[in-house]
Write a structure and sequence with these properties.
Length: 624
């Protein structure tokens, strides 16, 4: 075998993504499903090897002889994953999918796995270990054979509110002295063996059998039809298509919310404590999501995201959070899973995210920008949604001068972060534009005064003439990659000398080859974020530099950098949150929506599409 049954997980970049638009699974190059939460993205996991070892739950299908080569691909532009194992005895293909029941959302989640013989004869080993509740709950597992009302045979795993059912052409048997099931079999050229694992919340209601071949074909057809709607023909089309498909895969279909990542606690620094739960929906992603989806033809998903956004922030404007659950849940209480060892020893493993309570003023700008963009793209405003926005603006007018935690959700002291102040300007600027361009009612003179006041303040306090750059926070002497967004949001034009100078300083201080750090971190505790250890370079920030270079007139450099960043994807086109330049490995949660959003929007900046700071009307009142 190519992998020890109870061994630790492999590199993050060895994983591929499966999704049914409600939850997701990660499969590594050894054919092991190492992460799966059921029935939702943020539910407890039943396969948790990713954050421990094989004893914490996984499902592996792999040749039972040495593997000489592994080749993987997604079938066409779908999320049907094909992994070919080449051995001395022959070649087998593992086909994995999760049927995306977008329309019938009450269908039970399921994972379909098929092994196909391509050439020769290859011995295979199946190992199935289910551990509910993040590896803490060992289920009662039994083999069931029934004849009434129809013949059926399956393995049933039950623990509290969780039930898993495994059916297949061949079923694994209990391993003596282990809480595991295993099967050894051979596959010859032209043969196929299939398995389906389904979930149920009620052990007395067992999901009916499914046709794995038909389900796999239906999955491929769904994704093929969906990607045919994508309107992009520029360079690196495969990367843009894969990124858009990944954003779709991270969508919770019942509400339209998009999670930042399907994982928790994959470390930003190996062995460190920068481990966070990203299985939630961030308001900060709102504008970028709408831009990415709408620019390239995914208007239905853009509209669904807007509906989720309005629903999530509805209520008291003082209660607006930076993130919510996929159903709009507000309380994302953070706790530590102390029984899991963590990804390759990185602790703690966290569930929930305490940052949901933080004040981050930039989110008001993100929400106003997203809803303004939606209006420009033809999504009709109504009295309720505009009243909601006016309420947010009224509240922002009373708190905008306060310090906050900034977009990086620092766990150090509150500060006047420059990016947060820029986004406060965006909030009032979009309000003024709503009144001037769309005729929406409101105290436009007051908004205009506030907009101009914030703009003047940022220029006076966020700019450091000695450094020649906008700083991370007022009075600071260090830079932050977030200031690269200044031209993108329209705060200053890209050819403004202060923008160009800031880009040069960011390159000097934060650029690592083709990659860009968020801000300076080190081995000692960082006074800004309150954490120790150096993190990897942030992939989204790297794409932000591409945008800033292009908008400042350095297009050739932007194109060259974009080419190099695209090449950093793993073998199936996925990106994590960060990239560690020292080890050449992905770090952080995976796959990361922010990274894929940034790639798609850089493609729009370079090769067509609209940026967030420019007007783009589709409702008959202006040019597209």
């Amino acid at each position: 075998m190519s992998d020890q049954p109870a061994g630790p997980p492999g590199p993050i970049e060895h994983y591929a993504l499966l999704s049914d638009l409600r939850t997701a699974a990660l499969v590594d190059t050894s054919g092991s499903v190492d992460w799966l939460c059921l029935p939702r993205f943020d539910s407890p996991s039943c396969f948790s090897r990713l954050l421990g070892d094989g004893r914490d739950g996984h499902w592996q299908l792999v040749p039972d002889e040495p593997v000489r080569e592994v080749r993987r691909r997604y079938r066409d532009n779908s999320l049907v994953l094909e992994t070919e194992f080449h051995t001395d005895g022959g070649v087998v293909r593992l086909v994995d999918s999760m049927p995306p029941h977008e329309k019938n959302q009450h269908d039970p989640p399921c994972l379909v796995r098929m092994v196909e013989g391509v050439s020769g004869e290859v011995p295979m080993r199946l190992r199935w270990i289910v551990r509910f509740a993040y590896g803490d709950s060992v289920p009662w597992v039994r083999h069931v054979r029934q004849t009434d009302p129809e013949p059926d045979e399956y393995i049933l795993a039950i623990a509290g509110p969780h039930t898993a059912v495994l059916r297949g052409d061949l079923l694994p048997q209990r391993v003596p002295n282990e809480r595991a099931h295993e099967l050894v079999f051979a596959v010859r050229a032209g043969q196929r063996r299939s398995w389906v694992m389904q979930w149920s919340s009620d052990h007395e209601t067992i999901p009916p059998p499914m046709d794995p071949v038909q389900e796999t074909q239906d999955s491929a057809d769904f994704w093929r039809e969906w990607t045919e709607r994508i309107d992009y023909s520029g360079p690196h089309a495969a990367a843009v298509y894969r990124s858009l498909a990944t954003l779709k895969a991270l969508t919770y279909a019942p509400t339209g919310g998009i999670v930042a990542a399907p994982t928790t606690s994959l470390p930003e620094a190996f062995g460190g404590n920068r481990n966070w739960d990203y299985r939630y929906c961030w308001l900060r992603d709102a504008t970028l999501v709408l831009l990415a989806l709408d620019n390239f033809g995914c208007s239905a998903e853009a509209a669904a995201w807007r509906r989720w956004l309005v629903r999530a922030v509805a209520g008291d404007p003082a209660g607006v959070q930076i993130m919510y659950g996929v159903d709009g849940e507000r309380h994302l209480l953070e706790w530590e899973v102390d029984w899991l060892a963590g990804y390759q020893g990185a602790q703690p493993v966290r569930v929930g995210n305490g940052a949901f309570r933080q004040q981050q003023l930039d989110v008001y700008g993100e929400v106003m920008d997203a809803l303004h963009l939606a209006r420009e793209r033809g999504v009709a405003e109504n009295a309720d949604t505009w009243a909601l926005q006016r309420g947010m603006l009224k509240h922002l007018a009373t708190i905008w001068q306060q310090p906050d935690k900034g977009l990086w959700e620092v766990r150090g002291p509150d500060r006047h972060f420059t990016h947060s102040r820029v986004m406060v300007w965006v909030a009032f600027d979009r309000a003024v534009r709503a009144a001037e361009e769309d005729g929406l009612p409101g105290p436009v003179e007051h908004w205009r005064e506030l907009r101009d006041e914030v703009h003047a303040e940022v220029l006076a306090k966020g700019w450091n003439p000695e450094l020649g750059a906008f700083t991370q926070y007022y009075g600071g002497t260090t830079v932050d990659a977030a200031t690269l967004l200044i031209p993108s949001v329209g705060f200053l034009p890209g050819d403004d000398e202060r923008v160009r100078s800031t880009i040069r300083v960011v390159e000097q201080e934060l650029r690592r080859g083709v990659l860009v750090d968020r801000y300076t971190t080190g081995e000692d505790t960082n006074e800004v974020d309150g954490l120790s250890g150096r993190e990897g370079s942030f992939l989204a920030c790297s794409f932000w530099l591409v945008d800033a270079l292009a908008l400042s007139g350095r297009r050739d450099e932007a194109v060259a950098m974009f080419d190099e960043l695209v090449a950093l994807a793993n073998d199936v086109g996925l990106y994590a949150e960060e990239f560690d330049v020292h080890s050449g490995r992905f770090t952080g949660n995976f796959p990361q929506a922010f990274s894929h959003l940034a790639l798609v929007n850089s493609a729009a900046v370079l090769y067509g599409g609209h940026t967030r700071g420019e007007s783009s009307r589709r409702n008959g009142r202006g040019p597209r």
